[in-house]
Amino acid sequence: MWSGTPLFPEQASTIAGRVDALYFFLIAITVFFSVLIAGLIVYYAVRYRRRSPESVGESVHGAMALEITWTVIPFVIVMVVFVWSASVYFAIARPPNETLNIYVVGKQWMWKFQHLDGKREINELHVPVGRAVKLIMTSEDVIHDVYIPAFRIKQDVLPGRYTTEWFQATKPGRYHLFCAEYCGTRHSGMTGEVIVMEPAEYQNWLSGGAPEGSLADAGQKLFTDLSCNTCHRPDAQGRGPVLTGLFGKTVQLQGGQTVVADEAYIRESVVNPAAKVVDGYQPIMPTFQGLVSEEGLLQLIEYLKTLKAQPEAASAPAPTEKK
Ligand code: CUA
Asked: How much is the CA Rg of the chain, to the nearest whole Å?
């Protein structure tokens, strides 16, 4: 409808059409009532104008039908808007079960992307068309925001936390990616491009370039380099908890609380181990704050995800993450 005009970006994701439909509905309602009210003001001003200097306005007391009408109509309209927008919001907020996960680290002033197989890129994000992609995002410094107008998605990226957003691109092409949260001098230059490719082309791109180890492999190397393995041993004889099969499980903490071992918990346990101590263990782990980069933390998390209860599952991680 708006193609060819710079008023609206392209619709290039499964959600884009739904967001626009709601938006056009809001515009239509606003235009309808603005025109109606402005028109009535002019019409009544003429129709009921003072015709002689002696005429006095008639006072009106009570108009139940009128009161009910102008209460019920707005109520119905806002409820329609509420239900409609809530359903769009849930579709945007809840990723499907099967997603292609890509890690994003924002910093002043660039975007760093890591694919599960180890491929990395800066300010460019290659994704396949027709596949649900989930971005798991964090920041190295201040608050940034990943905004991809053609996909109609936007999500803050915060230091010390993981936020996610997902999309399914519907047509190949190159789309703008902006930082949508003021983050310093070169905020306006913190842009990038999402390159949507046909699946075969995407596989080609993934396998091209210098062979790099997978994210989980890099995490395993880091796990050894930082000597995590001296305390976190798989045989339950170490000074730290066993990490095999940990991801996604509920962990019993000292003091009776529990926590689900998700990305945020693992990150916190590395940079601030004393925050949540596992029941039955001493708070003896030193902090790794400053020793592991945000990208390193993501690699460690991806490595822990591969430590399944079955020993044979600990080898190659699947590119698709089930959650
Ligand atoms: Cu990063 Cu604005």
From this structure: 27
Classified as helix, coil or strand, 23 is: helix
DSSP 3-state of 314: helix
Q: Which two tokens stand for residue 100?
A: 């292609």
Q: Tell me the pLDDT tens digit for each residue of 255-266.
A: 888 888 888 888
- Atom 1 of ligand 1 has which residue's CA nearest to it? 144
Omega within 30 of 0 (cis) for the link into 109: yes
Which residue, among 238, 243, 240, has the nearest Cα to 220 in the 3D structure?
Answer: 243
From ligand 1's centre to the CA of 298, what distance in Å?
Answer: 21
Q: Which residue ranges have their beta carbon within 6 Å of ligand 1?
A: 106, 109, 144, 179, 181-183, 187, 190
Compute the distance from residue 321 Cα to the ligand 1 centre, in Å: 28
Strand partners, 114: 103, 120
**pTM for the predicted model, two decimal places:** 0.72
Q: At what angle do helices 294-306 and 263-271 cross, to 10 degrees?
A: 120
CA 159 / ligand 1 centre spacing (Å): 12
List pLDDT tens digits, range 165-222.
999 999 999 999 999 999 999 999 999 999 999 999 998 888 876 666 788 888 888 8
Q: What gap in Å lies between CA 6 and CA 193, rounded to an integer? A: 18
Three-state secondary structure readout of 228-281: HHHHCCCCCCCCCCCCCCCCCCEEEECCCCEEECCHHHHHHHHHCHHHCCECCC
* 148 phi-psi bin (left φ>0, alpha ψ -120 to 50, beta other): beta
**pLDDT tens across 141-174, in order?**
999 999 999 999 999 999 989 999 999 999 999 9
Q: Which atom of ligand 1 is nearest to the CA of 184?
A: 2
**Distance (Å) from CA 165 to ligand 1 centroid:** 17
Residues 6+ positions from 143 with CB-CB distance below 8 Å: 156, 157, 158, 159, 181, 183
